[in-house]
Amino acid sequence: MHHEMPDKRLGDFESASRNEICPFSPFSPFSPLKKTMNKLTMILMTALAVTSQAGVQWTKDGKVFFDQLPGGNLADDFPVASMPPDYKPTGQTRDYYLDMMEPIVKLAANWVDEKGAVIDPVLHREWGQTSPRFASAGAVLIYFNRLPELKEKVYRVMDYTCDKLSRPEVTKCSPDFWMRELTVAVVALTHVAPPERVERWRNALAKVSPEDVYSAVDKTGQKIARFNNWCLFGASGEAMRQGMGITGPEGVFWGNSFFDRYLEPQYIHFTENGMYRDPNDPFTYDITTRFQLSCALMWGYRGRNFEKLNDLLRKAALTMLRYVSPQGYVPFGGRSAQFQFQEAMTAAMCEMEALRYKGINPRVAGMFKRQARRSAQLIYPYLVGEKPHRHIKNYFDPNLLHGCDGYGQYSVYSLLSAGFLGMAALYADDTIEESPTLSEWSSYAFYLRGAFHKIFVNCQGNGFEYDTRAQLTEDATGMGRILLKGVPYGLLPALPFALNPKYKIADGFPKADYPASIAPCWKNAAGTLWRLAQKVKEEDNEYTVLEEKPEKVAIQLKWNMKGATISEMWTVTPTEISLDGELGGDCHDGVWEVPILENDGKHQPIVTVDGNSLTATMDGGAVVVAGSSAPSLEEQRVTNRTGIYKVYRFPVDENGRIHLVFKKK
Fold it and tell me: What is the sign, positive or negative, of the torsion defined by CA atoms of 24, 30, 33, 39?
């Protein structure tokens, strides 16, 4: 999904044994069979794969349906959320997704030029995979009888993109991402567009030779394990094209053969619970990579990797129910954070998983169904309530691109949100009844240690996310997100504050000379200032779950850092989140820093300090931060993707201790 070239380093995965990568697979780069494989063998195996493909199907009235993935018994012992006393279904249906897509596609229709390219309104040129993403989202809306006036424009973009994908010039336009978008569009338009036009698109896609046009490819097979999410986007698109019965050129890896060839070396990047590790463990690329692979299975892939991959994907989807916030937000962590497409793809993934468990485990199916709708509800105000819509979770002028990664342009990530919502609409089964999600009402502590490095604690709708080993160009170590029922999102930090972020900080916005989170800072005996926020080693912490009950969850973290000792006991109840902290060792003049939003482009909260507590109010909600000492305001402000924040400092007492309480007013 990201638009930088794939990372060429193995990074944290260098120690993984190459012998674990399916050594007996004939397509494996480490197999002795590879050197003897000839053109005829590939053609015969590809033909066999075509005949065994389940694939996309249509009903007599032209409605598309997909294979239901097997559920197995993984969810049998999965914890089920209790029923909240005030529980109400969301009442949303498939139309909710379509309603959010419409304003994006309507606006983007103005960006289509005469030849069918979609031109970014900020850059004034075509950007990466923007054009096929418009085609995909527009096609889904047309399939559901929305925006019929845009048919010819969508067809024009389809003509342009399908033809371009097999041409050499496409190599500069992120072609690895195109096939999935275009197969979705062809499926949606098969019984809508004129048959001769559909045939033209299918014939154009059949000409694509993946290893000649995609970016993350290696014909020798020796470098595939070093690729990351790009190669799995391409692989999944190939399996999807075969799933809808589009063939490929003879004598090349395409479809399922390409999928197997590029998937198998990637198994070293999966954790035991099925999560996918892109370099530096960004959460976005766990979800989106797994979503692409799940789509390949939904569209009929039943090749030699089916059982192993399906097992990983089931485990990871159940894990996702634990780490998505009580409100439905995707965790912070790494690049591509805070974009609306994160919750859109979560909705699509959860709709798919709801189908998996329908008829097998209705309660778990209902949890996925509700999670899909709750995540979608979070982005509705940004996509429908703002004019123009916002593609990232702040309200600054979209032309500023504040908070955006260099590849996160307005056109491409707006249309990606629409595309994922379109997939959610295609997968949605409104007959599945909602059940409370795990994080919205259950109480638990959950630590992804060793990979992703995040602690999640939830208690009946209140919760937090703590980073124990931040990538300092994106985040900071410490308490990065506190979410309380009834407190507006972002008033307390929704993610930490990097010292020198890779993402864009708009011109004129403040840039602090230190990283920040809700965490301590202190001076050592030499007068040097230190912050837990700048720490990067996870192995130095001791983590203990002190209590895990329906009405209270408490954890303790102990750190050693530059001669200092830090103890944090965090407690979450249905009404508040509290900290009991202590600084020891070589610590002097210690304080706990608490950032509070100053401006997100729309809201300027009112903050009042009264003795040992401060109250911040915005958008009809308020939070109180009460301490055992009186806060002072730090001179420098800090900025993250969400907005500009003031930093309040609560001093520790003479014994190095502090007590803080965060609660809704």
Answer: positive
In this structure, are residues 502 and 474 in contact, taking their beta carbons and an 8 Å threshold? yes
pLDDT digits (tens, 9 = 90+) for 21-68: 232 232 333 333 333 334 443 433 344 343 344 578 888 888 998 877
Residue 84: the pLDDT is: 82
Query: By C-alpha distance, which of 606, 592, 434 is closest to 516?
Result: 592
Please classify residue 664 by burial: count the beta carbons closer than 10 Å to its beta carbon, then call 0-12 exposed, 13-18 middle and 19+ buried: middle
8 Å CB contact between 603 and 645: no
In order of 41, 232, 409, 467, 501, the CA distances from 504 in angstroms are: 49, 27, 11, 22, 7
Question: Burial letters for 197-223: b for 16+ Cβ neighbours within 10 Å, e otherwise?
Answer: ebebbbebbbebbbeebbbbbbeebeb
> Residue 12 pLDDT more than 50?
no
| Sequence-ordered list of residues with C-beta below 8 angstroms from that of 155, at least 6 positions apart, any chain | 189, 193, 197
d(Cα 226, Cα 229) in Å, to the nearest integer?
Answer: 10
Task: For 282-304, write each residue's pLDDT tens digit.
Answer: 999 999 999 999 999 999 999 99
Q: How far apart are CA 293 and CA 312, in angstroms?
A: 10
Using pLDDT thresholds of 50, 70 and 90, give the confidence band for residue 639: very high
Amino acid occupying residue 228: N
| Sign of the alpha-carbon torsion through 171, 173, 176, 182 | negative
Which pair of structure tokens corresponds to residue 349? 């993934």
Q: What is the rounded CA–CA span in Å between residue 93 and residue 83?
A: 21
CA distance 406 to 524: 38
Maximum distance among all Cα pairs of the chain, rounded to whole angstroms = 81
Q: How many residues does the chain have?
A: 665
Identify the pLDDT of residue 36: 36
The DSSP H or E segment spanning 438 is helix 438-441
Torsion, Cα of 102, 174, 6, 274 (10° steps): 40
Contact 242, 235 (CB under 8 A): no
Mean pLDDT of the chain: 91
Does the pTM of the predicted model rise above 0.70? yes
DSSP 69: P
Residues pairing with 67 in the sheet: none
Burial label, 16 (beta-carbon count in 10 A; 0-12, 13-18, 19+):
middle
Residue 399: DSSP 8-state: G
Confirm if 217 and 232 have CB atoms less than 8 A apart. no
